[in-house]
Amino acid sequence: MTQDELKKAVAEAALEYVESGMIVGVGTGSTANFFIDGLAGMKGKIDGTVASSEASADRLRGHGIEVMDLNQTGDLQLYVDGADESTRHLHLIKGGGGALTREKIVAAASEKFVCIADESKLVDTLGAFPLPVEVIPMARSYVAREIVKLGGQPVLREGFTTDNGNVILDIQNMTILDPVELETALNHITGVVTNGLFARRGANVLLLGTESGVEVLK
Ligand code: 5RP
């Protein structure tokens, strides 16, 4: 199977978590796009969605699916999103698409986070994928120096601005042995909006697309 076929398979498996009358939190990226396309086939069943990016909101609206404001909906029962890396403990790196802050907000406000990923995303240790950190533009250099003190090599994501008007520093080549500790340390640097480690609030379920079918990790 191709990587896209694996992504589609997990996205379809995630549709089984969608129940009648739900407002569904929807993530960002190519795997989440397959989920959005699948959701279109059952849009009469749900009350609406909350999107983690402008791109996903546009795709949802393109299918005629209502996109709501999280401030109006209250907490959500379900959030479905992809990841750049996941461990078997369901600690994640996210934000390859730059939507990490809104993704983290929707995940925080959701009872269940179902992560959907093809098997290439499963790792023993996080950090081979560059860890995104969203930063207020005026703090960019200061935050970069603080990241170096933590042992990271920050690289500015050139020509990219987040939906929130900020920049991203991608931390290269960091072996992340304690994701909870690093997530907290990065968030304590003044000027950091948030970082792409989802360890304090990881996924509740990982649907992993493999050649032999969709594996469910909890
Ligand atoms: C976007 C994300 C995505 O979930 C992550 O980058 C995975 O993307 P894809 O499904 O395209 O592999 O965190 O900010």
Structure in words:
The chain is an alpha/beta fold and 218 residues long. It contains 7 helices and 13 strands. The strands form 3 sheets. It has a 6-stranded mixed sheet with strand order 2-1-3-6-12-13. It has a 4-stranded antiparallel sheet with strand order 8-9-7-10. The two termini are 24 Å apart. Bound molecules: ribulose-5-phosphate. Ribulose-5-phosphate (5RP) is lined by residues 27-31, 81-84, 94-100, 103.
Keywords:
binds ribulose-5-phosphate; six-stranded mixed sheet; 7 helices; four-stranded antiparallel sheet; globular; 218 residues; single chain; 29% helix
Radius of gyration using CA atoms only: 17 Å
Let me know the average pLDDT.
98
Give the uncertain stretches in residue-range form. none
Query: Tally of extended strands?
Result: 13
Largest sheet: 6 strands, mixed
**Structural class by helix and strand composition:** alpha/beta
- Summarize the helix and strand pattern as letters: HEHEHHEEEHEEHEEHEEEE
What kind of assembly state do the chains in view correspond to?
Answer: single chain
Percentage beta strand: 25-35%
Distinct small-molecule ligands in the complex: ribulose-5-phosphate
Distance from N terminus to C terminus (CA atoms, Å) equals 24 Å
Instruction: Tell me the strand order in the biggest sheet.
Output: 2-1-3-6-12-13
Number of helices: 7
